[in-house]
Fold each of these.
Amino acid sequence: MSQVQILGSIPNVSDVTMETFADALAYAVTNIGGKLTPYVDVEDIRGTSMTIDKIGGLELRQLNESGAEVEESAPPLERRKYTWDVYANAIPVYDDQIAELIEDPSGKFVTKLMEAYNRKLDSLILKAVEMSVLTGKNGDVVLTAAQDGVKTVDASAAFTYEKLLELQENAINNGTSDMEWIFTLTGKENTGLMNEANYLAGSGNSLAGNFGSMIEVNGTKISKAGGFKGIHYAAADLNGTNRLIREDASYRYNIAMCPDAVRLGVGLAPKLEFARPSNKHLTTLIKFSCGVGYVREEGLKCQILKTTK
């Protein structure tokens, strides 16, 4: 992934201190990742109209007689276009505070900055699973998630054992069951599965043993269910903020995917700029910006889990 560019200078902060800060930031970019970024391809790209070319399905055909003519098939090369977004923020900091932020490279500023950056990357991965993608030679053919093979499991009545089996069934039918699947869940989905396991265990249901063996719990959180690794996110608060998992008025749309289902392209290296605004006295403006492309590589490696909020 691209390293962070640091531009500008700060009064009364030495070059050595800035170099130390730059090293700390470079280390953070490499070592502080998002929850979903380890499961996707991340590459450096240039321009805002970049595409990826991938090999689609390829099968051999049987020849029924010696010397039979080999029929041509459609070219397996498939092109997909990145969707491109640019994000930025500007934070005014008083001069008596900026030195403390910069001179303590182990402090929270670098960590918080990278956490915010990786939350944005996670949100784009979640978005890429559900969005339509642009395909075709010129990147002008719209392919919806459903047309691309993304299955939706409707667990709006309840996230039960049967819905977990449906996720597994889709993975098997799509030929991806041998891959390491992950799925997102908020506290409600976590509780729903835990309650389902407890209910079956207390009911004497013959499924109890099967379901219990499918669930791995780390403390109070489900770490794995049915071979799907659990990735936990907070639900939206009463104001609808802090939301990464998409929600509407009634439903929440978690995702499931396996590695390389989504690709990110960092086209504008994260940039951190220190500026002295003319209209603010004794203040340094910290500007952070980045440009990211995102695209779903293969719909058969993605699923949507619809639950009730």
Amino acid sequence: MSSHPTASVSNRSRNLHLAKARHDLRTPINHILGYCEMLQDEETDAAWPNLQEDLQKILTGGKQVLALVNYYFDPERVKPATPDLRQLQHEVRTPLNHIIGYSEILQEQALELARTVVHSDLGKIRAAALVLLDLLESYLIHGSSETQPEPVLADSIWPAILALAPSASDLAASPVWAGATILIVDDDPLNRDMLERRLQRQGCKPLAAESGARALELVRTQSIDLILLDMVMPGMDGFQVMGRLKADALLAQIPVIMLSASDEAATAVHCIKVGADDFLPKPCNTTLLLARIESSLAKKRLREINRAGLGYFHDKGTLRPDSPSYVERQADRELFDGLIHAELCYVLTSRQMGKSSLMVRTGHKLRERGISVVLLDLTAIGQNVTPEQWYDGLLSRIGRALRLEEELEDFWLRNERLGPVQRLFTAMREVVLKRHPRPIVVFVDEVDAVRSLPFPTDEFFGAIRECYNRRVEDAEFNRLSFCLLGVGDPTDLVQSAQATPFNIARRIELTDFDPSEAMALAGGLGRGIELGRQLLERVLYWTHGHPYLTQRLCRALASNKEISKPAQVDRLCTGLFLSSKARDEDDNLAFVRRWLLYSDAHRERLLQIYDDIRARARRIVHDETNPLLSVLRLSGIVRVENGYLTVRNRVYARAFDARWVREQLA
């Protein structure tokens, strides 16, 4: 019996709290409804045709908020003990977003029409909406205990919302807005309408999609500069749309700003992690939203200018780590994974497959992880050198990369009694690992250059292997890793089975561009999404994704804006690669030809095998132990498909056709 008085006190206290909340919340609602109704009584102005329609939208939003207040703060209504706060935020912010957004639009128009009284009343509506937002957050989201603290100001809960509407100078359009196409994705028609009108005033072209599925249709048929993406939508939500965009190499380049009724830090972080360029909570501060859009458009425009100046496509030399035409392949992920776990890795394949670009790109990513990177190009050290000069050259370059030049030079001179290879790797242990505290990855590029040296190099590779073997007894060697890159087979580079590091290394297969990977290149053709896709598909028809041939043909295609049909791509390809002159002058075709004709002793047998593969006279199994098949594979003219050799692409099949084979055998 004693518990009844306590329960009665608790109920009275709860009812008092709800009564106070209803009073506090209805006050700004009354302001919104009252000022809105007064403005509706204004005479119709032909110069302001949208005034009454937009005021009705504000009035409807106010009534929706009033209904929410009547529901959640009526003690007689049965409500969930633990409401869905995410859904609750969405219900609260959607009508408030309408009220704030339309009042801002009307305020700007009132200024332009010199309607000072109307401008003032609209400002009161907007201010009341901000106070109401703050109160609702305080009572509904942050808890409704009986000892509720005084509500804090709106800008402390919502730092993105300013007390004043944006000024004309804040909204002055930058040149980046002109002609920009921005896609608005939101299931709420009023949200779409407000954003469309706001963006039109900035001088850009807004498109609207009411669902994620419709948005994906539009991005595939229209040239979109930026996407404003609502997070919570029925059917396909914003995260699912982001997943589809990022899975498409071409669409993944479109900047995306996500909008949500949730302002939790975890929500913002998740949006950025799934690939969004920016995030803003609703209701959005107009000045901040426009600033974020302008920043994204400016960055996109700068990238386009850089591409135009430096050239989007590159078919000469190594690509920069940030090159827009770099195509990330499975090899990128495998090599980074292997090196981040301190494995010994190697990439051995034919010329102009992107080995050096892969090395530079991976090195850049490793540096971002705090790992020191040394890039050694063996061709830069020379061939007419003694072992002493060669190993000293390697150590000198390592010293420059790690800023240990003087220490390593001093060690080299003080230890002349040691042989060159022992001196190099002892210096790595006694100087580099002792004085450089971070993990180190050493890339050895053009490793096949060792075959041209006037002395054997098995002990060089053996010493690399020993660095990994020493890890068991000397943990410092766990911080030192190697990656070997070049043209050749492991057996061509190392004669001794005991010295070879390749049998303890991770092999990284560097293949042609997969069509889905290469599709990002369509953006550099300057033809729009759909036409760009069609033309790139025809490029890949000829090149099968061979890195050099694809970049070369795309570069020529990008520079000729008159090409708009696949048949025109065919003619362009014929001129670039399929003339007799091209076989001699194109760097890649000349390399393939020289490699096939290099050895007089095996030329006839090699060409006969190639001709059988080309004509499909018989199926030839890929056998790494067969030296003639290795020559064919390293020339780049064939690839492995389902365990059998096939001609790599149509360019090679046409450039090195039956007639060419007969001429070489004659």
